[in-house]
Amino acid sequence: MITPEIISLARKLWDYHRMGQPLSKADCILALGTQDTRVAERAAELFHQGYAPLIVFSGGLGKITASIWTQSEAERFAEIAISKGVPADAILIENKSTNTGENILFTQKLLLEKQIEANSFIVVQKPYMERRSFATFKKHWPEKVLYVTSPDLTFEQYIVPELPMELLINSMVGDLQRIKLYPEKGFQIHQDIPEDVWAAFEELAAMGFDRFLIK
Fold first, then answer.
1. Boundaries of each DUF218 domain copy (predicted)?
2. Ramachandran category for residue 50: left, alpha or beta (phi over 0 → left; psi -120 to 50 → alpha)
């Protein structure tokens, strides 16, 4: 049962994961693969608002999507963007990556192969993966100008049948642990975690929201 106390703790993690950065025009929109197709819709929205002339959709099949889709995340996202009016020739697809680090590294390779010089990026991800995406991108591509955004939804609005509250909280707990541990592994840059946010993490993990924790 999801109690008001659990929701209060989870919202602390949500507010930390979301960076709320203001956006500026960039050379490329980079939409990172996920089961949440609203990320593709957000990328299409930014394209139509004139934020960048190119969208790269990056993602093969991850832990969740491999069990629900046969089509890669990038290909599914590209179809959504085209259905929203984004021209196919404004889209590139990277469909091999299976994690955020590979999203960045394989996109680097793709742009190099296409001889496209992009110096600034708007990365689009799920709201609760903004900070982790920022930290990973800055580790692997520190010289680029970066903005991170996500579908503009509140914590309550984000809950949908395919992403129930329990799965969302487990995911946020797992991502926060990775923000703390991954800099030592060379996967991300360091991010300060406020004491109250880490305390909320520990409480939620102790309550059993440990599905995605690194043991």
1. 27-144
2. left
3-state secondary structure the chain: CCCHHHHHHHHHHHHHHCCCCCCCCCCEEEEECCCCCHHHHHHHHHHHCCCCCCEEEECCCCCCHHHCCCCCHHHHHHHHHHHCCCCHHHEEEECCCCCHHHHHHHHHHHHHHCCCCCCEEEEECCHHHHHHHHHHHHHHCCCCEEEEECCCCCHHHHCECCECHHHHHHHHHHHHHHHHHHHHHCCCCCCCCCHHHHHHHHHHHHCCCCCCCCC
What topology does CATH give the domain 4-206? Rossmann fold (3.40.50)
Sketch the domain layout of the chain as residue ranges: 4-206
b/e burial code for range 116-149 (CB count within 10 A of at least 16 → b): eebeebbbbbbbbbbbbbbbbbbbbbeebebbbb
139-188 per-position pLDDT tens digit: 999 999 999 999 999 998 888 776 789 989 999 999 999 999 999 999 99
- Give the CA angle between residues 148, 78, 121 to the nearest 5°: 25
Token pair in block for residue 184: 């030592």
Distance (Å, rounded) from C-alpha 30 to C-alpha 123?
Answer: 5
| Angle of helix 4-17 versus helix 195-206 axis, rounded to 10 | 130
Cβ-Cβ contacts under 8 Å for 7 (sequence gap 6 or more)? 165
